[in-house]
């Protein structure tokens, strides 16, 4: 039964809105009278051009993206951006700064070491990535070309609630796991990037929002596919793009606009996250979330059981009740409930009821 779906708490690829999947299903075989599936279309034909242009226009209105920013639909995931950013924004000897609030920020920093001179100016590692530094105490490198942050650490559940203003250079943010989950003032950033597969589409599409005056300075060794200038001049169509993925992102953007835009989406996300954190905090220590309250993620809720030997049982029983993928990342253990945009409130309510019931049976 195709209606018999589970509540998927995976960190990614994540659940997609049911209405979006149904719309794609209805259009799968013959897209709007074109006689073809989107997967079969020329990426240079008028049909696909209308799809990618609408997707960009809708994203621009969702995030209020200023005119002097380019929007790129790329491939290679967030991971490719870890290299593409230093390759394009600095020369091999340039200093750049990284604030490392979890594993993803750390990976971004390590990749940048191949292409410039990055420095970790703050790391949450010694406190197991449960905090974010107060911005006033961040000491940036003189002449740093950019300050890189991971806006939401998917594994550790640590999320920036507002953003530091770099004294030197521009702010660059990995928004892979909280992209389009709330309004963002794009003008504060030089570059924002995100893999689509958590909040806005299937994997295979990576979205980059970059201030146009930063484009055109790639290092000489930069492969064509990794040069923002080539991608921007060709409107993301230098080579064959991930057409179907871009189409799916477009359907999600339409859906987010129909929900009332990102202010409304944020309200829903807050409500869902609060329900789970409340259940954890009111469990008398049966459940625990290690993350400092002020920076707890609205997207990824990591938690453990005081009686850690019960964790496998918790995950197994939840799966039996059609709540799947609740196992924490292998590097931190415990559980993790990822509750991106498309997770319905009903899924979170069901999880919270299960948590209470599980506690009553095992406390
Ligand atoms: N950045 C963050 C915050 C992530 O959560 C992930 C993947 O989960 C990545 C980067 C890597 O993304 P990708 O798998 O698209 O390369």
From TrEMBL:
Subunit architecture: Interacts with the CDC2 protein kinase to form a serine/threonine kinase holoenzyme complex also known as maturation promoting factor (MPF). The cyclin subunit imparts substrate specificity to the complex.
Species annotation: Hevea brasiliensis
Family: Belongs to the cyclin family.
Name listed for the protein in its UniProt record: Phosphoserine aminotransferase
Function: Involved in the plastidial phosphorylated pathway of serine biosynthesis (PPSB). Catalyzes the reversible conversion of 3-phosphohydroxypyruvate to phosphoserine.
Residues of the full protein shown: 437 to 799 of 799
